[in-house]
Amino acid sequence: MSSANVELVRAIYAPWERGDFSSVEWADPEIEFVIVGGAEPGSWTGLAAMAEVWLDFLSAWEELHAEAEEYRELDGDRVLVLTQNSGRGKTSGLELGHMETRGANLFHIHNGKVTRLVVYWDRERALAELGLAPEADSPDS
Q1: What is the CA radius of gyration of the chain?
Q2: Does domain 4-129 have CATH number 3.10.450.50?
Q3: N or C: which end of the chain has fewer CB within 10 A?
Q4: How far apart are CA 54 and CA 33, in angstroms?
Q5: Residue pair 10/71 in contact by the 8 Å Cβ criterion
Q6: Where do runs of H (alpha helix) occur along 41-114?
Q7: pTM, entire model
Q8: Is 78 exposed, middle or buried (0-12, 13-18, 19+ CB in 10 A)?
């Protein structure tokens, strides 16, 4: 049976898998939003800051979808989601799905709200930083 935290994260991903990133009902008003790696890594606090950063990122893509491949409850407060992202760049027309886009998102949850969301563009880095074993089917393992 899945925990309430895993079910919360599954509910967040349901619209994300359809390319709908509009809801923030799941987020604490003072959420810490962290991007590890990628073109613009950083850390921001609050819903407005998270929305601004994420909308700026989304504006560069058409039909961006975030597919959850696996949910891992790490402890009572954290859920790790291994992701596969797909989309097409608006300027380049390049299919994101043809690039290495296996990432991970780490959700910190307190009292039914996400208080910290860490977006890792590199799944292996996430697993290493969290002290987890690399995936068995990974070409790097």
Answers
A1: 15
A2: yes
A3: N
A4: 10
A5: yes
A6: 47-58
A7: 0.84
A8: middle
- Rounded Cα distance between 110 and 77, Å, is 6
Question: In the sheet that 78-89 helps form, which strands lie side by side, from edge to edge?
Answer: 42-45, 27-36, 113-120, 102-110, 78-89, 61-73
CB atoms within 10 A of CB 70: 10
Residue among 124, 122, 107, 97 nearest 73 (CA): 107
d(CA 62, CA 90): 6
All residues at 6 or more sequence positions from 96 whose CB lies less than 8 Å from its CB, including other chains: 61, 64, 85, 86, 87, 88, 89
Span 74-121, pLDDT tens digits: 999 999 999 987 666 666 555 554 444 789 999 999 999 999 999 998
